[in-house]
Amino acid sequence: MQDVAGTVSKIVEFQDEEEFIDNMDEVMERFSYLAGKYGRNPIEGILLWDYIGVQDDEGVKVFRVGEFPYAEGTLKVDLETLRTLEMYFDEMESKWDELTVEDIAYFVEMLNEALGRKIVYYEAYDLGLDRNTAYIILNLASLHYLESVLDGRDMEIFEEAVEVLMRYI
């Protein structure tokens, strides 16, 4: 765990990846609703073991290894770059069942070499993630703030989100 100005970073483990994603979607939805009303969101980020970032003309876009076909239409890069990305991501996806963080890190390194520039980023390996793990960044100051100002239905929404989150922390 790392504590920087009220922020805690933690690697969490889970057994069922889809259940974890569904639960985190639920938590994020609840906290986003509260952040819209109170200006603070306790979750500053979640990084799964297979999240990859691609820098395009608009910024860095993050997606999961198997989601490249969906991200492909949103990337603002030239056609040659897009085809190279597609080739490498197809190769990674074809090895999905035995894919490791080391494999993804290697593919990303080779991909950036093939592109001749570094536009693909993979942080999970450096963070020590593996399958069935995620990196969560919590803002404890925001968590405490919301707990102190909420009541009624908003407090119920907050407590439900915290209960789901605590299953993993």
Topology record:
Elements (H helix, E strand, L loop, with lengths): L1 E3 L2 E7 L3 H22 L4 E6 L2 E6 L2 E6 L3 H4 L7 H16 L6 H15 L4 E2 L2 H4 L5 E7 H10 L2 H15 L3
Antiparallel strand pairs: 1-2, 2-7, 3-7, 4-5, 4-6
Helix pairs in contact: 1-7, 3-4
What does this 3D model show about the protein?
With 169 residues, this protein is an alpha+beta fold. It is built from seven helices and seven strands; from the N terminus they run ββαβββαααβαβαα. The chain has helices spanning 17-38, 68-71, 79-94, 101-115, 124-127, 140-149, 152-166; strands spanning 2-4, 7-13, 43-48, 51-56, 59-64, 120-121, 133-139. A four-stranded antiparallel beta sheet has the order 1-2-7-3. A three-stranded antiparallel beta sheet has the order 5-4-6. α3 runs antiparallel to α4 (101-115). The longest helix has 22 residues, at 17-38. The chain is elongated, with a radius of gyration of 18 Å. The model has no long low-confidence stretch (mean pLDDT 92).
